[in-house]
Specification:
alpha+beta; Beta-Lactamase; Heat Shock Protein 90; 3 domains; five-stranded mixed β-sheet; 10 helices; rod-shaped
């Protein structure tokens, strides 16, 4: 019973039931209309036949006399079929015909009448034919004889019965097969839904590797399963990333916080000189600034990935942004023994967030400065290039530093990923993560390419 209730609660069974009811109602109306129209057509044909025979017999009576009309009525009466014929005197004496037991009003009045009558006898198969139902036209001929011509309509009623019997059988078959089809379909739907529920239960119990099974039918349930599996893959990746971020945040923040505490304790000692206290405060400020920069980077990445930057999108002159960044970092490059070159096409516009585009450029240039390793006969070089057309805008920052190995490039855009294993160098591992998030926010991508030597980072963004 519970299974039946579960089946009944499915949309498939309910929709099937609704369609069955609608189809049965439509079938009843359609077949009723067909049967009614068929009966009307048969009745009209019988009426036309009766009028035609009455007119023929009247002409015979007018032209050839009583004997000829009596012979004609006798011949009509002898023919097999539903025809009813009577020719008699006004006193009720029958001259010719195949039916004699008429109601009194039929023998007395003129017009069209319908009535039950006794036919008498049995058919060859033994069916009782003693009762009949007739529709007749009664009139007095010019010769003074009473003429009655009509049809037995039992066959017409039999036709209607046959139609409705066929209809009832058809409806019964439709109901049976529709119910079976609905139950089978609902069971298949429930089986697929049960598989999804079972997978969901396993995932909620903590097994994030479970996925909804996908069949080879390529139907809407497979489409739903693929979408759910893609969502589960994304959730698992996010949770894994969250775990890694949590671990890295704990590792990266533990050291500066420990230094802050130790410096504060040292400054609070009674025998500490003012110079030592001042130095401790300066270290505290430096470490605090690093922590603030880390949290600011995390917040900016979160805003970019959420698609809700602090400023609304607007038309941005990327060429101007790149020139401002180049002008800002040119002194720092010279101080580091590097040259900063630009290849910026004029008036390259993009609908974007100016702050994030600028921050992405700053991060790329700072990375090039940070990882530059001076070498004899190998002057450092940073190149900022901007180009664009109607479909794409390319922002590239290239250097001739150590670069990034091809196998490490896919993971360096993850948060807190640092290729320096000891994690003693300054930095948080969030620079390229922010650049990648900005590219994604602008429906583009960040490509890390070999500059031979060095690294070429390209922001490939759609211009529209």
């Amino acid at each position: 019973m519970n299974r039946f209730a579960q089946l009944w609660r499915t949309s498939t069974v309910r929709l099937t039931a609704v369609f069955i009811v609608l189809f049965v109602i439509f079938s009843i109306l359609l077949l009723t209309f067909i049967a009614y129209q068929s009966s009307i057509q048969i009745q009209q044909q019988q009426t036309v036949a009766i009028d035609r025979e009455v007119n023929l017999l009247k002409r015979i009576d007018d032209n050839q006399g009583i004997r000829a009309v009596a012979i004609a009525v006798a011949r009509f009466a002898a023919l097999p079929g539903p025809g009813i014929y009577y020719l008699g005197s006004n006193e009720g004496l029958q001259i010719a015909g195949n039916v004699s037991n008429f109601p009194v009003n039929v023998l007395r009045d003129e017009g069209v009448f319908s009535f039950n009558y006794d036919r008498g006898g049995f058919d060859e198969d033994g069916t009782d034919t003693t009762r009949g139902f007739a529709v007749v036209r009664s009139l007095v001929l010019p010769s003074g004889l009473r003429l009655i011509v009509g049809r037995d309509v039992v066959e017409r009623r039999g036709f209607t019965v046959i139609v409705f019997q066929g209809f009832l059988l058809a409806v019964a078959g439709i109901l049976i097969f529709s119910i079976l089809a609905g139950v089978i379909t609902a069971r298949r739907v429930l089986k697929r839904i049960d598989a999804i529920n079972a997978t969901s239960a396993k995932i909620m119990s903590g097994n994030l590797s479970e996925r909804v099974p996908v069949t080879k039918r390529n139907d809407e349930f497979d489409g739903l399963a693929e979408s759910l599996n893609a969502m589960l893959d994304r959730i698992e990746a996010l949770l894994q990333g969250l775990k890694e971020v949590t671990d890295n945040v704990a590792h990266d923040l533990k050291t500066p916080l420990t230094r802050l505490r130790s410096k504060a304790e040292a400054a609070l000692r009674a025998d500490t000189s003012p110079d030592t206290q001042r130095a401790a405060l300066e270290v505290t400020l430096t470490e605090s600034d690093k922590l603030i920069r880390t949290f600011n980077a995390l917040l900016m990445i979160a805003r970019a990935e959420a698609g809700a930057p602090s400023g609304a999108f607007a038309d941005v002159d990327v060429s101007e942004v790149a020139r401002d960044v180049a002008e800002l970092y040119e002194p720092a490059a010279e101080e580091a023994g590097m040259t900063l070159e630009t290849q910026i096409a004029p008036s390259v516009h993009l609908r974007a967030n100016r702050e994030l585009i600028g921050q992405a450029l700053v991060n790329l240039v700072e990375n090039a400065l940070k990882y530059y390793e001076p070498a004899e006969g190998k002057p450092g070089r940073i190149s900022i290039a901007v180009s664009g057309d109607r479909s794409r805008v390319l922002i590239a920052v290239a250097d001739n530093g150590p670069g990034i190995a091809a196998e490490d490039r896919p993971r360096v855009t993850e948060r807190f990923v640092r290729l320096e294993k000891s994690r003693t160098e300054e930095g948080s591992g969030l620079g390229l993560s922010l650049v990648a998030a900005v590219a994604k926010l602008h429906r583009g991508e960040l490509r890390l390419e070999d500059n031979s030597p060095g690294l070429r980072a390209v922001l490939d963004l759609p211009s529209a």
